[in-house]
Amino acid sequence: MKSMQRLPARAHPFKPRAGLRLVFGSAFASITVAAWAQTPPADTAEAPAPASAAVAQTDTPPNTELPSIIVVGTTPLVGVGTPLEKVPANVQTIKGADIEAQHTPTITNYLEKNVVSVDTNDAQGNPWQTDINYRGFTASPLLGTPQGLSVFMDGVRINEPFGDVVNWDLIPQAAIQTMQIIPGSNPTFGLNTLGGAVAVQTKNGRSNPGGNVDLSFGSWGRKAAQIEQGGVIGDHLDYYFTANVTNDNGWADHNSSRLRQAFGKIRYTDADTTISVSMGGADNTLNGSQTIPRSFMDNFRQAYTFPDTNENQVGYLTINAEHYFTPNIQLSGNVYYRHYRNKNVSSNVNDDFDPDGDDADELTQAFNDQSVIVTDSYGASLQLTLLNKLFGKDNQLIIGAAGDFANSHFTQSSQPAEFTDSRATIGTGPFAPQTDAKTRNENWGIYFENTLSFTEQWSMTLAGRYNWAKATIGDESGVQPLLDGNHTFSRFNPAIGFNWNPTPYFTAYATYNEGMRSPTAIELACADPAAPCSLPNDFIADPDLKPVISKTFEIGARGRVGSHTTWSAAAYSTTLTDDIQFVSSQGAASTLGYFQNVGKTRRQGFELAGRTQWGPVGVAASYSYVNATYRSTWTESSASNSSADGDGNITVHSGDRIPGIPANTVKMRIDYNPISRWNIGTNLTYRSNIFARGDENNQDANGSIAGYFLIDLDTTYNVTKQLQVYATVKNLLNKRYANFAILGENFFNGPNHTFNGADTVNEQFLGVGAPRGVWVGMRYAWK
């Protein structure tokens, strides 16, 4: 077989074999270049390729077809990308069309049901506020949760600077073109990439011409409407726009949701340059039902206390650009501005309630806490890609720099309250200010990545990033001058990886990389055991915390069998040094406590995945095993743990499992097309048991929380080329299950679960999953 002419260097520094289909799918660019042995198919590129990047036809015998080469992004910015066969990691790519095809209501729900090594926790009791766990690392919207994943949208890191939280409800789901899950401590993605990075690329009008309107309704009063429109203007401009509204009464008492989102993009493209300007916003109100004690499971829809409301608002502007100066030199960059506001109102039991006390605070049943966070963040990145020869071998060098800055204003106030018979809190006095602070975050990073191809079969990747982070905290109240302070952290994080590709159908790799997470302002201002604070936070003057350092080893392989079957396997181990944990002062369910470094923790395991097609039936399946353990001995306050000593403390030993992380997860997706216009799909999900938070020593008498098995169904029927109808069923068997738990003190042991602070009971509090729900919808499309 005659080899195909080499791609020009501007395209990629590798030699594709005859008949290869090259799929350019970087984290922020997805370009398909066909190199079929016969006549190439129509161009499906998002943007015109540079003039010198055309793929030559070959005289290979007809009907010769070899596997696709996927080209992925290994840095946040738009770039040339790296062929997947040279990427030493088990990268997973999700297309926006796949999310749309399953009609999932939330991004997190799709990830939970389809992505290897991902599971969720319903700690907040709202479907748009779930925690995502990937390989035992978390991206959560809850302040105070130790974050371990970095999330990017169009090259902009969207972990909010105050607390590093990830608000999944602020990502415009309809606008997702691709989403990539990059595992490990990849240093080029910067701070907080301890266990992995999530990279989202949004749609554009050239790849998504035409429009549609989508309407759906169903269980729990959920009603949703969405519109999309994209197109091309002349030879060089394209545009894309989407907006949606959702109202949901919630499956439980007091967990309704109201979402409003909009996103738009306009792009200019020519042979060598692409410039895009995108902007969007959201205005969401999300109510949560919190976790409930096991004794409340006679009616699992009830809330422990209420209200618990989050109002999330965001507006952002991003400018991305890339330009080829020569076929071998590409420069890309971006600038962005983001305005974020969160208002939280939560009802909390007074943990110090004492019916025999003399102090007014001891006689107060509850407090309504109100916090407001306003953050203005902005920054810029610049990246240079050089495609050249090194020692006569193909080589790709990426050099980049980034600066991210944020100013946040945090206020918190508290109001004394009493409980009604339905456990609602009624204020008995005015809100009194507790905290008024401003913070500033400055993050600088310089990084490089070099991929050297020794031969067509062997390649090596060297990468590294120097991070410098500064957190400044200032008191605005005038009564907490000791709060003022500066905290600076810096480190160089390296990475090295090797890839072996003996055939186009098989790749093996091995890699080692390091990452860093600097403590957030909310952690730095709440780190003194002698002066615990409440979450979201009563800021106080505290000692420095140490940054968290991650070190990851991974080996794996992936390949293709025939033309319809793909598979992957990976084994990994990530060790964190100086991991940070919130240590409760009055039991795990209490919001009073402090952050501390707890030594080493480790997440290690393996994952297997495969996908195949048998005629009208498509099957995708995966299994993941995560062994998440503490590797140091430390003491925690957990008075609700049955094994606690007289002071309410437990001792956590090396080898104890980290709560909330299941060891075993199995997923299967089956699609059946009885006729071309009709699809029937099902998701089967099994998750094994977990330990409750507060049971870090794994010794509580309540034991672990049972695993569960769920079945979801969906079906889509194309009535015409323009009209589509669909239906989805979640939790088909109506299983009652919990995917999160925490140990706490139940204050509601009176008749009908009314307040009885004089007779409290230690229990497991459960994050209960939603019961069966059914929705139907229709989509009408036009060109």
UniProtKB/TrEMBL annotation:
| Ranges of Low complexity composition bias in the record | 42-60
SUPFAM superfamilies from the xrefs?
Porins (SSF56935)
What does the UniProt entry say about where the protein is found? Answer: Cell outer membrane
GO MF, one annotated term: siderophore uptake transmembrane transporter activity
Membrane protein topology class: Multi-pass membrane protein
Q: Which residues form the TonB-dependent receptor-like beta-barrel domain?
A: 267-732
Q: Which residues form the TonB-dependent receptor plug domain?
A: 84-197
A GO biological process of this protein is: siderophore transmembrane transport
**InterPro entries tied to this protein:** Beta-barrel_TonB, Beta-barrel_TonB_sf, Plug_dom, Plug_dom_sf, TonB-dep_rcpt-like
**Where is the segment annotated Disordered?**
42-63
Q: Which domain of life is it from?
A: Bacteria
Chief location of this protein within or outside the cell? membrane
Q: Which keywords accompany this UniProt record?
A: Cell outer membrane, Membrane, Receptor, Signal, TonB box, Transmembrane, Transmembrane beta strand, Transport
| Signal peptide start and end residues | 1-37
Which Gene3D superfamilies does this chain map to? TonB-dependent receptor, beta-barrel domain (2.40.170.20), TonB-dependent receptor, plug domain (2.170.130.10)
| Family in the record | Belongs to the TonB-dependent receptor family.
Q: State the protein's name.
A: TonB-dependent receptor
